[in-house]
Amino acid sequence: MTLDFAPRLIAWQQSHGRHDLPWQGTLDPYRIWLSEIMLQQTQVETVIPYYSRFLASFPDLATLAAAPDDSVMARWAGLGYYSRARNLHAAARRIAAEHGGRFPQQLDAILDLPGIGRSTAAAIAAFAFGQRGAILDGNAKRVLARVFGIDGWPGEKAVETRMWALAEALLPESDIRAYTQGLMDLGATLCARARPRCEACPFSDDCLANRQGRHGELPGARPKKSIPEKATAMLILLHGGEILLEKRPAPGIWGGLWSLPECPADADPARAAASLGYRAETADRCPAHIHTFTHFRLHIQPWLLPVERPLAAEEPGRLWLALADLNGAALPTPVRRILEAIRQA
Ligand code: SF4
């Protein structure tokens, strides 16, 4: 099975895999890199419109490298995992400064760029330059765990090490593009997490998970641990149809995006507004929001506070944004929802 895994996967990809995704049919490393970064932890259908819009604004590496932070974050807003956008931008600047604006071809030079791990570097090198290297993204892990019956949670070091060794051993001598795409396609289209379509799979007769009916157990689940709950209050300081935003520090949650000022959930919102330099006669409690991050759940209590605007210029890192201009702003998703609700009220 190990020996003919690659030829079977390549043949299946060529006849049944995906060939029309917007980032296929190009050898431009910039476009391939962008797609690989956007596809991390994100479904293809979600990525497609963001990918097109991002390319419309930043059609090549030089344009991205020269772009201001805010316009890059605005194009990424809504896609989540914002460190990806910050790293992408930082990497574009590094390529401009250190590689003469040309995307590097050597695997270690690619791996050295911010935000690019081993699997992503190998995928870019395979698709853009036809270089032979193993990938081990979520789809590949699921397929390998099931076909070869690898127990344990792939996030655990020992399991991951075993998977990397297997992924390396399975690599074909040629057709690396179809092979790499095949692993991604099989995981995304047939070997889905729930209800895999084994009857259409090229490995249905040999796959250990299929033969032993262990689809639900493989790959092993992350050990359960309860996710912490956190709470915050957000202040919607409103004046003349505009609201006050603060730029979030990077690195950190929502780093580089514009968000509402916050105070502890149990603090007096009017007093918190006063500490920012604004006097509010009233503070109205708005509907609460819950936002779930990978590592914690955030309970957000927004407060609406009509305020007077000081005549002095705003401090750096703060701006007033018209509610009518929400669409173009780099806002975290829950903040956008909170403000949309205010705009429509
Ligand atoms: S046979 Fe089923 S479980 Fe095994 S790799 Fe194919 S789709 Fe996945």
Strand-helix topology:
Layout: H1 2-16, H2 29-38, H3 44-57, H4 61-66, H5 69-76, H6 83-98, H7 107-111, H8 118-129, H9 138-147, H10 157-170, H11 176-190, H12 208-211, E1 229-239, E2 242-247, E3 258-259, E4 262-263, H13 269-275, E5 284-285, E6 289-292, E7 297-306, E8 318-322, H14 333-344
Parallel strand pairs: 1-7
Antiparallel strand pairs: 1-2, 1-4, 2-3, 2-8, 5-7, 6-7
The chain binds iron/sulfur cluster.
Number of helices: 14
- How many domains? The number is 2
Give the ordered list of helices and strands: HHHHHHHHHHHHEEEEHEEEEH
Q: Which sheet architecture does the biggest sheet show?
A: 8 strands, mixed
- What is the share of helical residues? 40-55%
CATH architecture of the largest domain: Orthogonal Bundle
- The tally of strands reads 8
Per the CATH scheme, the topology name of the largest domain is: Endonuclease III, domain 1
CATH class of the largest domain: Mainly Alpha
Q: SS-based structural class?
A: alpha+beta
Low-confidence stretches: none
- By CATH, the superfamily of the largest domain comes out as Hypothetical protein, domain 2
Strand content: 5-15%
Which assembly state applies to the chains in this document? single chain
Structure ligands: iron/sulfur cluster
Overall shape: it is elongated
